[in-house]
Specification:
Blueprint: E1 7-14, H1 22-30, E2 34-37, E3 42-48, E4 53-59, E5 67-69, E6 72-73, E7 76-86, E8 92-100, E9 106-112
Antiparallel strand pairs: 1-2, 1-4, 3-9, 4-8, 5-6, 5-9, 7-8
Length: about 110
């Protein structure tokens, strides 16, 4: 029998300009913007208000994602790479933190491939 373990990916909004610590990543899990996945591919919708950025946080091993918003590619920058995140089962994994280039985007659907 083979057992495969998957880690979380996180997304959402924050007024923090550069999320790059384990504790900051945990705030996304607390907000229930997390799910277990083995893929970087995801479509999600959030509403970013004044001073809020959109974030997408995935295991570094999943590679570099492509972001599409409103039919246009881009708009996200890697603001935290190789951030060691420890999950609720005490397993540590290296994560990459991607942030929208602009704040206050309102209701936005992000397609990640």
């Amino acid at each position: 029998m083979t057992v495969t373990y998957y880690n979380y990916r996180y997304w959402g909004i924050s007024s923090v300009a550069a999320i790059d610590t384990d504790a900051e990543i945990d705030t996304f899990a607390a907000a229930q913007n997390a799910e277990i996945s083995s893929s970087r591919v995801k479509t999600f919708t959030v509403t970013a208000g004044a001073g809020e950025y959109i974030y997408y946080i995935i295991r570094a091993a999943l590679g570099t994602p492509t972001f599409t918003v409103g039919g246009f590619e881009g708009g996200f920058t890697l603001v935290g790479n190789d951030v060691v995140h420890t999950n609720s089962r005490s397993f540590s994994e290296t994560y990459d933190v991607w942030r929208s280039d602009l704040a206050n985007l309102g209701a936005t659907t992000v397609v990640v491939t």
